[in-house]
Amino acid sequence: MREIITIEVGQAGVQVGSACWELFCLQHGIQPDGKLSSQSSQKEQVDSFYSFFSETKEKNYVPRSLMFDLEPTILDQVQTGPLSQLFNPETFVSGKEDASSNYARGRYRLGKDIVEICLDRLRKLADQCSQLQGFIVFSSVAGGTGSGLGSLLLERISEDYQKSVKLNFPIYPSPETSSAIIEPYNYLLSTHKLLEHSNVSIVLDNEAVYEICKKKLEIQKPLYLNMNRLIAQVVSSLTMGLRFNGCLNGSLDELEPNLVPYPRFKFMISSQSPIFPASKKTDLEELSNLVSSTLEAYKPANIMVKCDSTKGSYITTTLNYIGDLVPKHTGPTVLALKYSGLIKFVDWYPTGFKCGITYEPPLVIPGGDIGQVPRAVSMISNSTSIDEVFIRNNAKFDIMYKKRAFLHWFVNEGLEEGEFLEARNNLAELHAEYELSLIHI
């Protein structure tokens, strides 16, 4: 079994990662103490465990996970929460003070003091793997720890594990709301590093996920827990083919060749369908309709990052189906999607579909807000519409940088001002490349 290590960095990364492990345990029949439930069959599922879980001498299953933060509050919540007995104590590494939402502080001032400890824990975990497939990294590019320490870790991992896949789930600044004034600076510097060191980045933002929770799940005031559990459904769907039996499934290292036509076009949009509230009674036959579920996945209201997917062109797209399906079910669905008018491909790559099927039925957290469905589909796509995210955040950066506002907070923490210019030029080149990709042949 080819193993995968998840790395959660900063508050957002740890909270999203925890929601994912909560769902993974439910899917594999692993109890909060790491023991197999009586309903789970070790003989049938043992291989699927080993990609994300390791087995101890006591027959406990422990997540192949590492959680890093520059201050201990969020990690303490995990260690005292419902999954406290699940994780190995060496999973957690924390500092003593936070990064104050400052990339430079997270990378240069505080990050350099903790990064070697983090990498040492990572090496120990990697050494236990027989055939390490890659890393899944959760972090925010808007905060100080996720952007600063996260980019430093990614850079070092890229150097030490060059052949391993680095799949990132970065949470980007929301268009209308902000948790820190200096988010545009953090975003620019962190995205600059993602361009260099990530293989694939599936972009998320809290505002888009918040609206899905509010409109689709009918939650009046969604909490981070509601949002993170919805994100976990997408992460779970993407990794189901690595953890369970199915057909047309590939490994993590097949993700990049199928989605990334050029090395710098590595930022993806994602969605999950169907989504409906657990409190609502819905016709199961309607929920099982593959065509309607697939079409729904491509509507802008379901995309988990704020961008209008109808204004861009799709380059490649991956559909991950979950439930009682066979390949002959997906053919008519893809055909209906092609002729729906919902998606438009670039004219230089008109056949960019890939489908995967996992036979395991989709699951949701009992007592949660997401309704149980017999079948589900997640969509991961490379679309030029993602450039809208970069244009929006670049404009915010330009306004602040023109006045040199808050710049001293970064310089005082060890960042050279030239890094801003280098990163801004890199993002300008990326925008030009997206524009060029839309020119008709």
Report on this structure.
This protein has 441 residues and is of the alpha/beta class. The chain has helices at 10-28, 42-52, 73-79, 103-109, 111-127, 144-160, 183-197, 206-215, 224-243, 255-259, 284-287, 290-297, 327-338, 387-402, 407-411, 418-437, and strands spanning 3-9, 53-55, 61-63, 65-69, 92-94, 132-140, 165-172, 200-202, 204-205, 246-247, 267-273, 314-322, 353-358, 376-383. The strands form two sheets. Strands 1, 4, 5, 6, 7, 8, 9, 10, 11, 12, 13 and 14 form a twelve-stranded mixed sheet that branches. Strand 6 (132-140), helix 6 (144-160) and strand 7 form a beta-alpha-beta unit. Helix 7 (183-197) crosses helix 16.
Q: How would you spell out the order of helices and strands? A: EHHEEEHEHHEHEHEEHHEHEHHEHEEHHH
Radius of gyration, in Å, reads 21 Å
Task: Report the count of strand segments.
Answer: 14
N-end to C-end Cα span = 43 Å
Query: Main sheet, how many strands, which sense, barrel?
Result: 12 strands, mixed
- Number of separate helices: 16
Q: What average pLDDT do the residues reach?
A: 91
Low-confidence segments, given as residue ranges, are none
Q: What is the 3D form?
A: globular
Share of residues in helices: 40-55%
Query: In percent terms, what proportion of residues is strand?
Result: 15-25%
Quickly give the structural class.
alpha/beta
